[in-house]
Amino acid sequence: MAITGRLVWLTALGLVPVVVLGQATGEPGLLLGAWLLLVVVLLAIDLAAAASPRKTSLERRLPERVRLGEAVDTELLVTNTGGRTLRARVRDGWQPSAGAPGTRPRLTIPAGERRQILSRLTPTRRGERHVETVTLRSAGPLGLAARQVTLRAPGTLRVLPPFNARKHLPSRLARLRELDGSTSVMVRGAGTEFDSLREYVRGDDVRSIDWRATARRQDVVVRTWRPERDRRIVIVIDSGRTSAARIADEPRIDTAFESSLLLAALASKAGDRVDVLAFDRRVRARIQGATGAALLSRMVDALAPVDPELIETDWASVPSEIRQITNQRALVVLLTTIDAPAASRGLLSMLPQLTRRHRVIVASVTDPEALDAAASRATLDDVYRAAAAERQLLDIERVRTALTQVGAQVVTGSPEDLPPALSDLYLQLKASGQL
């Protein structure tokens, strides 16, 4: 049972005349008791007249998934299966991060009828957003009290990574077409896979002359090349404790997702095979064997529920996980953090195993606030912050140097800059024939 503000006001308003009349008659206690008894009787009558909220059925309709930052409409259908008119206030129990409106709509549902409640959700976090219950508060005709019950109406909405980095995809695809020879450009793209023969023009590399074809045609002919296709790319996303840190109000792991989605979209268009692994001490997500549009669809769906685990990543197990994916030489991209030498020891000790067989890129997001702090020395507090920022930048440089010495390439950038920087490095390797 729940009482309403109307009951409180009714009780309070009745006390004034009761006290005045009681003083006039000399029996204030008797009148006060009579008034309170009348209020209790009205409360009981109103409560008895209220429709039972248990005699309702709930049906929820909602889409399976939505991208983070987008809004989605959901429906809650409330059916009155009782014999009385239901006057109820409804509270839907969504998680706060689902972005549900804070309203509690009122419904008046005659017996045997159904009403629809439309809600627009704007999730504020990626992952699985759940709702388990709906609370109904059925008020009586006087509005003094209500009967309340909480009923189960489970639902799940999967909030996908936003993939904001897709805005960089058209320019990288244009560059890829230049490398592939699909677009006319001033400079011929390099590569290691033979494409075709054509006549020599001024400016061509003489090393590309095909002397046998030249002898047959009695004209100078050169070979053209294109970037190799069907290469293996394995993206490993670190989901350990360091991925939980927020940089520019975004978790590191979300920046890793953005970077991996952009790289996967680009590599898939280039004809390469992409496999993705989210790992800390066990595999949190694995995407294998998908190509084209299906690759991105499976990636966002598999990565959406992956959250950072507050444990150290078991880097020693990464080579065996990669061997389960491919035994061929591949481009291995490790999306992790390199801002702490102590946390990077496991990565550094494991890397020689990978660099002996694969080309390895280590991608790490950096904090733009550290760069700003290092450049500001206006006050004494700024000087101390600058010293701390310089120490952090020196640690990053130390780890970068150590990674380079064991044969890995390192790319860093802010949450906004890292996805395109990683894709640019991929295109650079593609153009130079190093994949």
Question: What is the CA–CA distance across the termini?
Answer: 70 Å
**How many domains in all?**
4
Question: How many E-type strands?
Answer: 19
The CATH topology label of the largest domain is: Rossmann fold
* Global shape: elongated
Helix content: 25-40%
Q: Biggest sheet, open or closed, and with what strands and sense?
A: 6 strands, mixed
Order of helices and strands: EHHEEEEEEEEHEHEEEEHEEHHEHEHHEH
Rg, rounded, reads 33 Å
Strand content: 25-35%
CATH superfamily assignment of the largest domain? von Willebrand factor, type A domain
Q: Helix- and strand-based class?
A: alpha/beta
Mean pLDDT: 86
Briefly, what CATH class of the largest domain? Alpha Beta
Q: Would you identify the regions where 5 or more consecutive residues have pLDDT less than 50?
A: 183-191
Named at the architecture level, the CATH assignment of the largest domain is: 3-Layer(aba) Sandwich
How many helices? The count is: 11
Structural overview:
There is one protein chain. With 435 residues, the chain is of the alpha/beta class. The chain folds into four domains: 2-49, no CATH class; 56-160, Sandwich (Immunoglobulin-like); 197-226, no CATH class; 229-431, 3-Layer(aba) Sandwich (Rossmann fold). 37% of the residues lie in helices and 29% in strands. The protein has eleven helices and 19 strands. The protein has helices spanning 5-25, 28-49, 169-180, 211-217, 252-269, 292-303, 318-325, 345-355, 368-375, 380-405, 418-431; strands spanning 2-3, 56-61, 65-67, 72-80, 86-94, 106-109, 114-121, 127-139, 145-160, 193-199, 221-226, 232-238, 246-247, 250-251, 273-279, 283-287, 330-336, 359-365, 409-413. The strands form five sheets. Strands 1, 3, 5, 6, 8 and 9 form a six-stranded mixed sheet that branches. Helix 8 (345-355) links the parallel strand 17 and strand 18 (359-365). Helix 1 runs antiparallel to helix 2 and helix 5 (252-269) runs antiparallel to helix 6 (292-303). The protein is elongated.
